[in-house]
Write a structure and sequence with these properties.
With 124 residues, the protein is of the alpha+beta class. The protein has one domain. It contains 4 helices and 5 strands; from the N terminus they run αββαβββαα. The strands form 2 sheets. Strands 2-1-5 form a 3-stranded mixed sheet, covered by helices on one side. Strands 3-4 form a two-stranded antiparallel sheet.
C-alpha cells in the first residue's frame, strides 16, 4: 500500500510524532555532509540527498551504553538494570540497505539468547 504525503503536511506529521513522544531521526545537513540525526522540526530535514553519510545502525547500537549499575554496601552488593533506554523512534530517509539489515541483525542478536537491549530498541 502506497501513500503520498504533501510537503505542506510534512511539518504537521513531524510535530505530531514529537508530541506523541517519538524520537525522530532524519537526514540533516551539517556543513557539506548529510547525516542522519535527531530532528525537532521538518525544517531541519534534508530529503533532497540520496545517501546519508552515516547509518541508522548507530541509533540501534550505541557506542556506549549503561547495561548495569551496582552498589557495594558492607557485605552486600545490589545491582540495578537501566530503565527507559529504548525510546519510541521513527526514521526517515534511511538507506534501503540499512533498513534491510535490521531483520538480519535480529537473527544475529537473538540466535542463541535474546539480547534484550537490541529487542527493546527494535520494538520501540
Amino acid at each position: 500500500m502506497e501513500k503520498t504525503l504533501k510537503k505542506e503536511k510534512f511539518n504537521s506529521l513531524i510535530t505530531g510524532l514529537k508530541d506523541q513522544g517519538y524520537k525522530t531521526i532524519a537526514p540533516k545537513k551539517d556543513s557539506n555532509l548529510v547525516m542522519l540525526d535527531e530532528v525537532q522540526s521538518a525544517d531541519e530535514i534534508h530529503l533532497d540527498h540520496v545517501q546519508t553519510n552515516n547509518s541508522i545502525k548507530e541509533f540501534f547500537l550505541p557506542k556506549t551504553e549503561k547495561i548495569l549499575s551496582y552498589r557495594i554496601e558492607k557485605n552486600k552488593v545490589s545491582m540495578e538494570e537501566p530503565e527507559g533506554f529504548a525510546v519510541k523512534t521513527v526514521v526517515f530517509g534511511s538507506r534501503p540497505c540499512d533498513a534491510a539489515s535490521l531483520p538480519i541483525m535480529d537473527k544475529v542478536f537473538n540466535w542463541d539468547c535474546t539480547d534484550k537491549f537490541w529487542v527493546q530498541r527494535r520494538e520501540a
